[in-house]
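User: Can you help me understand a structure? I only have the sequence.
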Amino acid sequence: MEVVALVRPVVESAGLEFVEAVFRREGGRRVLRVTVDREGGVDLDTIAETSERISRRLDIEDYAAGTYTLEVSSPGVERHLRAPRDFIRAIGQRVKVKASDPEEGGLTLVGTMVTADEDAVTVATDCAERRVTYPLIRSARTVFEWGPAPKPGPKKKVRGK
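Assistant: Let's start by predicting it. Here is the structure, written out as C-alpha cells:
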C-alpha cells in the first residue's frame, strides 16, 4: 500500500493538513519524512502525538520491510510551495520563485505573492509584477524575514533591587 494512503487519514483525523510524505535513502539509512501543518502552525506536542499515531498505523499495516526512521515535522518558517493551495495560502507573504522563461531562459523572483489561482501566480518585485504559470515554476518557497541583528558590543549589566 502507498505510504500517502496510510498516513494521510491519520494526519487528517488529528485535525492537521497532510503536506507530504517522502521515503528515501539518506546517509546510508532509510527515512520516511512526513510533513504536517495547520492554520497557525503546529507545536512539538502535536508533532509527537502525530508521530506516535503514524508509527502505530505503519506498524499495523507492516509498511516497509526492514529498518527505517520516521520523521514528522512542520514545513517550518520557509515553506516550500508546490500545489496551487500552497500558493493561495501564501498571498501577501514574501516569496522566492524560480521559473523557466521561454524568452529569458530562467528567472528568480523575490517579492510579495499578490495573486494565485488554479493556473498561475503573480509576484510583485521591487521592479514590477510578474505572472508565472505553474508549469514554468521550478521551485518556490516563502521567505522569512529575520529581524535586525543585535548590535555588537558589551552586554549591559542588570543590577538587582
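Now, to help you interpret it: The CA atoms of residues 8 and 18 lie 6 Å apart. The chain has two domains: 3-73, 84-142. Let me know which part you'd like to focus on.
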